[in-house]
Amino acid sequence: MLRTLVPILIAAATLGIVTGIAALMIVLLGQDWEDALLWLLSAVMIGSAVLVVTMRDIIRCGLAMIVCFGALAGIYVLIGAPLIGATQVIVYIGAISVLILFAIMLTQTKDAPRVLVFQSQSAAAAVASIIIATVVALAITATDWGELPQRVRLDTDELSRLLFTEGGNLLPFEVIGVLLLAAVIGGVFLAKREPGGPP
Amino acid sequence: MSNSLDAYLILSALLFSIGTFGFLARRNAISMLMSIELMLNAVNLAIVAFAAFGAFGATQEGVSRGSVIALMVISVAAAEATVGLAIIIAIYRNRRTPLVDEYDAMRQ
Fold first, then answer.
1. What's the CATH number where A89 sits?
2. What residues in A contact B46, CB-CB < 8 Å?
3. A26 & A102 share domain
4. Residue A38 belongs to a domain
5. Residue A192 sits in which domain range?
6. Mean pLDDT confidence for A155-163
7. Residue among A72, A141, A171 with most chain B CBs within 10 A, to mutate
């Protein structure tokens, strides 16, 4: 009982600390509320992403992934692309996460959470991912992005004109439709039970 | 902080490396698929950040052009998740395990 409560308590405490820092940033340092909101959302996103790859029970991994995608949708809205945020909520939280949760429930055996979660090469994988993060972060900070123009917020009118007109992206849009149809048919065919095969 | 491109790009790099670690280290096939979703989201965040800060041109058309790429990535990710999960369910039906290191039929 206590062992199941400990991660939840740690997560709640971390969330409290992060929210406190965000409130302090607004009150004491007098920063913009957008900065505080970005700090809060990115802390939630990175924290839940770490939980996705480290937690033992895979159902909880799926639920943490939903939290991660929700925070990312908030970041999209903060950047100035609310339509992308809405799409993220509809497609990722509404469709892909539910699909993954169903697949988890179809493929888990009773003893799955108890056996080892990580491969034997997990230490090397951790080192490699830390190196990737460091190198990319160094490259980002070392690059001079030039004079950044004033931020432009995404306008849905212009986006739909670009997406649905002949001179814009109409052909890729149609190709995406065919790709989704092929994926649906392929998924049904692959997961279909053969008559006389294993149940 | 929220007005610098660097912050969003570093956030994206962090998310991508967390996804890389999950893909390399987890034993469960569905966990690996979830890590791939994390990596795709990181790339999407980078694309949207570049578009919003005017890398495709600081006009409405430039921002929309980047957002169209992001929408395409999201829909391709949906197709990938469908087919990947169907493959995992088909393998599970034969091998009775979701752990990838026990899929060794081609090694024997």
1. 1.20.120.1200
2. none
3. yes
4. yes
5. 155-199
6. 86
7. A72
CA angle B73, B58, B4 (to 5 degrees): 80
Residues of B in contact with A42 (CB under 8 A): 11
Contacts of B61 in chain A (CB under 8 A): 158, 162
Mean residue pLDDT of chain A comes to 85
Check residue A197 and give its pLDDT: 65
Looking up tokens 């990115």 gives A42
- In tens, the pLDDT along A78-101 reads 988 899 999 999 999 999 999 999
- Does residue A24 register a pLDDT over 90? no
Evaluate whether B30 touches B85 at the Cβ level (below 8 Å). yes
Angle between helices A156-164 and A170-191 (to 10 degrees): 80
Q: Which residue has the higher pLDDT, A54 or A182?
A: A182
CATH topology of domain B5-102: Helix Hairpins (1.10.287)
Q: Are residues A32 and A93 in the same domain?
A: yes
Looking at residues B71-94, what average pLDDT do you find?
Answer: 92
In a domain, A125, yes or no: no
Q: Are A7 and A102 contained in the same domain?
A: yes
ipTM (interface pTM): 0.92
State the Cα torsion A88-A94-A95-A98 to the nearest 10°. Answer: 130
In a domain, A5, yes or no: yes
Q: Does B73 touch chain A (CB under 8 A)?
A: no
Residue of B nearest to A128 (CA): B21
Give the distance, in angstroms, between the CA of residue A20 and the centroid of all CA atoms in the same chain.
Answer: 24
Q: What is the pTM of this model?
A: 0.89
Alpha-carbon span A12 to B48, nearest angstrom: 30
- The structural domains of chain B, with segments of one domain joined by +, span 5-102
Say if B37 is an interface residue toward chain A (CB within 8 Å). yes
The pLDDT score that the predictor gives to residue A2 is: 67
Instruction: Answer whether residue A2 is part of any domain.
Output: yes
